[in-house]
Structure formats: structure tokens, C-alpha cells
Design goal:
It is a single chain. With 302 residues, the protein is α/β, with parallel strands linked by helices. The chain contains eleven helices and eleven strands. It folds into three domains: 84 residues, Arc Repressor Mutant, subunit A (Orthogonal Bundle); 96 residues, 3-Layer(aba) Sandwich (D-Maltodextrin-Binding Protein, domain 2); 103 residues, Periplasmic binding protein-like II (D-Maltodextrin-Binding Protein, domain 2, 3-Layer(aba) Sandwich). The strands form two sheets. Strands 3, 4, 5, 6, 7, 8, 9, 10 and 11 form a nine-stranded mixed β-sheet that branches. The chain is elongated.
């Protein structure tokens, strides 16, 4: 299949008809039909069958689409890069950040980056820890930012900041909290657990096991800001990262760091054979500055 075959097949697969695909591609219907027929002739098997007026993909088409969809995304990325270069845009950076950092810290760093590179283009996506290797390996992103770096021979990383785990709760449930809060003091509360949430969730689990704590784990979530939303709704208390806690803070909510302190690293992660560009380095520097700034909000004892 050539690139034109791929473009037409992708459009027909997603739209379910030649007419809709032609509109998407801004070409004539006969042109789409001709290219599709030529692709099927070259491949030696049918890609679609007509059912009640719609083109339904064959089993072979489903298998092919999984490969082509990724390639099509890369083609669009190339087109965007070429358009940026033509328009005088001197940089294009694709970032992948944890949802926790996408609430506040990363947007602030991107805003600073755009001030430094006013003609640059930045693509920001959020992803979970388990998706970092895939995103970088498949070139969906140039740089990832996460809590801890996955152990992988193709990856390198640098620590750009540190954070702490904090207990997030409603003020009306704990009207006079201490400056730091022990996990044992949460015993008896309805607890919102961060199940399968990567290094920070594992860090918290290790603490509870080490202290032999038996918490009332009533609700499990995977995303920190969902845990914060549940706390706000009165569903219980949660131990989350401080960046999510600060970003989600409302008059109803408060948080305290743990006693003893439980800290984690924030890492910039990239492929070993693709070290950060100058623009990526500027983003890392901006984010590091933000992570090291004294934070306003709930009491954060030393």
C-alpha cells in the first residue's frame, strides 16, 4: 500500500462510507472509490463489504487498521511539523505528563516555554505511568514527566524535583488537624485507595504494609484527581501527591503532609538515543523551577 492507499483506507474505515470519506479528504467520491479498489487489487483481498448501505471492514481490514492507525498519526505529525516550518515556527515539542502534573505545574511550565519560544508549537498529552515507555518508544512524545522513571534499557531520566505524599480531607471532618499527619491517625476513616496508580501508589502501599495498618479501603481509583473529587464529595479521605492536592484545593478541602515524611522524585524521561532538544531542556528547566518554588496553600511543615 502506498501513502494514498493508506489515507483513503483510514478515512473509509473511520467514516463507514465512501461519501463521508470523500468529504473528510475533500476529494470526489469517484476518486476515493478508485483508490480503494486499487488498494484492494494490490493487496489481493477485500477491505470492506457492503451491509445495509454501509461499508463494513473485513477481518483483514481490522488487523490492517491497527498498524495503519499509528502510521497515519505519524503522517499527520509530519504534516504539522512541515506546516510549522513553513510558517516560521522554529520548534515543536510533544510532552507527555502525568494527570497530576497536568493540573497546574506542567501548564505553568508550558506557559513560560511559550514566552521563551513565541513561535513554537507544543502538544501536551496526559498519560499514566504504565504508558510512558510506549509513548516514548512509539514516538508519540518527545519527553515524558512522571513520578519515578520506568526501568527500561532504552530510557534515560533526570530528577527535576521532589514531592511528598499528603493526606487530603474535608475541613468539616478534621477541623483541627496537626501540621503533619500520621497514617495511623487515619485508621477508622473511610479510605480512598489509589489502586494500580504507579510509583506513588506503590510507595503508599509499602508504607501501610510496613506500619501494619489495616485501613478501611472503601473506594479504589487510579487517578489522583478522581480521588480528590471523591474527598470533596465527602466519600472519605485519601493520601495523594502534594501537586494534585494543591491544584484541587477548595474552601472545603485541606491537606497535611505525612509523619514521617514520605517523598518521591519527579523525573524528566526520554529515549537514550534522543536526548532532550534545546526547547525540551527549556521546558525541563521551567518545570524544575516551578516544582522548587515555595508553595502556598495548606500548612507544609518542614
Amino acid at each position: 500500500m502506498n501513502l494514498r492507499h493508506i489515507e483513503v483506507f483510514h478515512a473509509v474505515y473511520l467514516n463507514g462510507s465512501v461519501i463521508s470519506a470523500a468529504k473528510t479528504l475533500n476529494v470526489s467520491q469517484p476518486s476515493v472509490s478508485k483508490v480503494l479498489a486499487h488498494a484492494e487489487s494490490k493487496l489481493g483481498f477485500a477491505l470492506f463489504r457492503r451491509v445495509r448501505g454501509r461499508l463494513v471492514p473485513t477481518d483483514e481490514a481490522h488487523v490492517l487498521f491497527r498498524e495503519i492507525n499509528d502510521l497515519h498519526g505519524r503522517m499527520l505529525s509530519i504534516q504539522k511539523t512541515a506546516k510549522n516550518l513553513k510558517g516560521g515556527i522554529t520548534g515543536y515539542l510533544r510532552l507527555a505528563v502525568l494527570p497530576a502534573l497536568g493540573l497546574s505545574a506542567a501548564p505553568e511550565a508550558v506557559a513560560r516555554l511559550i514566552q521563551t519560544y513565541p513561535t513554537a508549537s507544543v502538544d501536551v498529552q496526559t498519560l499514566h505511568h504504565d504508558d510512558i515507555v510506549r509513548s516514548l518508544s512509539e514516538r508519540d512524545s518527545d519527553l515524558a514527566v512522571g513520578y519515578d522513571a520506568p526501568a527500561h534499557p532504552r530510557l534515560e531520566s533526570m530528577e527535576i524535583g521532589r514531592g511528598e505524599l499528603v493526606a487530603l480531607f474535608r475541613r468539616d471532618m478534621m477541623p483541627d488537624p496537626p501540621s503533619r499527619m500520621s497514617l495511623s491517625s487515619l485508621r477508622g476513616s473511610n479510605f480512598i485507595t489509589l489502586a494500580n496508580s504507579g510509583p506513588v501508589g506503590n510507595l503508599f502501599s509499602s508504607e501501610t504494609v510496613g506500619l501494619e495498618l489495616d485501613l478501611k479501603e472503601r473506594i479504589s481509583v487510579r487517578t489522583f484527581y478522581v480521588a480528590a473529587g471523591l474527598v470533596r464529595a465527602g466519600a472519605g479521605v485519601a493520601v495523594i501527591d502534594e501537586y494534585t492536592a494543591r491544584a484541587c484545593l477548595t474552601p472545603e478541602l485541606d491537606f497535611r503532609p505525612l509523619l514521617p515524611a514520605v517523598s518521591f522524585g519527579v523525573h524528566a524521561i526520554y529515549l537514550a538515543d534522543r536526548p532532550p532538544s534545546r526547547m525540551a531542556g527549556a521546558f525541563i528547566s521551567a518545570l524544575s523551577d516551578i516544582l522548587h518554588q515555595p508553595q502556598a496553600g495548606a500548612a507544609h511543615a518542614a
